[in-house]
Amino acid sequence: MIALILFTLLALLPVLVSWRNPYFLGDLKYSVREIQIRKHVAKLQRKFSSLLDRFLEQVKKHPQKKFLVFEDSSYTYSQADRESSKVARALRTHAHLKEGDTVALFLGNQPQFVWVWLGLAKLGCVASLLNTNIRSKSLLHCFSCCEASVLIAAAGKEGQEGQQTEKKKLKDVFVKGDLYFNSGDLLRIDSEGFVYFQDRIGDTFRWKGENVATTEVADHLLTVDFVEEANVYGVKVPGHEGRIGMAALTLKENRKFDGEVLYQHVKNFLPSYARPRFIRIQDALAVTGTFKQLKTKLAEEGFDPNIIQDPLFFLEDNKGYVPMSQDIFSSISEGRLKL
Questions:
Q1: 3-class DSSP state for residue 259?
Q2: pTM here?
Q3: 159 assigned to some structural domain
Q4: N or C: which end of the chain has fewer CB within 10 A?
Q5: Is residue 210 domain-shared with residue 274, that is, in the same domain?
Q6: pLDDT digits (tens, 9 = 90+) for 280-334
């Protein structure tokens, strides 16, 4: 009888615990899986082999087996081995690379990325992978940090922005000696303890998971010959997290807005997530008593042509900046036009 009671209690224990903590079973499952993975990793560590070692093993075992599929093309292990060896020979001969050198790669999604990476591994070089979305200052910063002796880039890539500064480090916040990093994110914690991203604060906004510095986007816009002043800010879009880029511009005297010229400029100098999707042309930019640009009211007004009397333009993919219409606004608001 006692055994039956104990058995019943043990059987009901997970149910009772789950009732008190709805995440118990999920956490237990995760813990068991983590233990299994740790055991597997420990076995692998006892017999270490690099990715290059594994690749060369597969070249010997399955030379004609598909190794890589890209768009309408496919490459076998044997082909990948030959292409990467060509790269290794070229880099050793022309770039004079030797074992231990660091090489920065600024390549997009293409087979050549794999050939170059494997070629560098064959030479015993370290590949430092640069984010192809970054431009000018950020690209230069990352290239300097990795201390690469050679940069390999695909044709047509430019550079861009955004660095950490000492100003973002907060010291002695709660107790003396502690250190926090001010990410500029506004977060929300729900009743169950989950943390959600709400918005960016300060002179930045976030779009598609990327942080955009408004001052740096404005600096690029000011280099366009017909732009006199630029005020960049983020606006809310129904059904989307974060804010999308918008810029209020004033034009130089006797100059007209050229949507095609501006489009080519932002396409060349800014990553896609940082390009202003909406442009508002104003006679003068609103500023505070200390000449700081006002962004809050502009952000609240958004890009609704029914509210805004100033000329508005929308960045249409592969076409440039076109006049903002009620149809475009409705398509965006109703989720029919993808941003």
A1: helix
A2: 0.49
A3: no
A4: N
A5: yes
A6: 999 998 887 767 788 889 999 999 999 999 999 999 988 899 999 999 999 999 9
Q: What angle do CA 240, 332, 298 make, to 5 degrees?
A: 75
Structure tokens at 139: 């690209």
Residues of the chain with pLDDT under 70: 1-20, 45, 47, 135-137, 155-168, 181-186, 197-202, 290
Helices (H), the chain: 2-20, 24-46, 51-61, 77-94, 111-123, 136-146, 214-221, 259-269, 296-301, 326-333
| One domain, residues 223 and 305 | yes
Contacts of 275 (CB under 8 A, 6+ apart): 245, 266, 267, 315
Query: DSSP assignment, residue 72?
Result: T
| CA atoms of 113 and 127, how far apart (whole Å) | 11
End residue of a domain, out of 118, 153, 188: 153
Total Cβ atoms within 10 A of residue 125: 24
Distance separating alpha carbons of residues 109 and 303, to the nearest angstrom = 34
| Shared domain check, 306 and 221 | yes
- Cβ distance 242 to 208 under 8 Å? yes
Count CA within 13 A, CB hemisphere, residue 65. Answer: 10
Residue 65 is part of a domain; what is its CATH number? Answer: 3.40.50.980
